[in-house]
Design the sequence.
């Protein structure tokens, strides 16, 4: 009970942290996502959350499990699983926990081994821990673009459709 109370306090304390992000970061990250998506057919979504909703904080689960559940819930609620080629992915950033999660649709899970994402995620986590979110996110998007282009190249004569908004959502 005490751990959950401390968790709740930390998350409520940082509840408006997303509003204190550096000026212009949302636009720069949206541009990073647009640039990332140019070389492949995958769809990338970014969700930045200052803290977990209260309904997650009182659950009797480890924080890592809660973050994974939250990311999967957002993936589902945003309809990222519903892209034409089943190659959507969500980058979920929780500022209160200084944590980043990735959730992939079926085609990405089949095509790219989890180990390939781990090193990217590890480097991004280091940036998040040092509060250098923008640099870390832009590096992550660059690395993702290369990996996704290898597995989901744009076919000749095909026009890419942007099925998911490039603008990061803040909550």
Sequence:
């Amino acid at each position: 009970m005490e751990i959950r109370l401390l968790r709740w306090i930390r998350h409520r304390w940082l509840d408006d942290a997303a509003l204190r992000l550096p000026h212009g970061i949302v636009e720069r990250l949206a541009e990073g996502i647009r640039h990332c998506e140019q070389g492949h057919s995958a769809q990338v979504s970014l969700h930045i959350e200052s803290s977990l909703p209260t309904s997650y904080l009182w659950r009797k689960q480890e924080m890592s499990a809660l973050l994974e559940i939250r990311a999967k819930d957002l993936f589902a609620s945003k309809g990222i699983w519903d892209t034409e080629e089943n190659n959507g992915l969500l980058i979920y950033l929780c500022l209160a926990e200084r944590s980043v999660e990735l959730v992939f649709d079926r085609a990405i899970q089949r095509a790219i081994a989890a180990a390939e994402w781990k090193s990217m995620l590890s480097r991004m986590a280091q940036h998040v821990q040092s509060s250098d979110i923008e640099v870390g996110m832009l590096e992550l998007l660059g690395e993702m673009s290369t990996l996704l282009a290898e597995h989901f190249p744009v076919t000749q004569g095909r026009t890419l459709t942007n099925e998911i908004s490039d603008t990061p959502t803040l909550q």
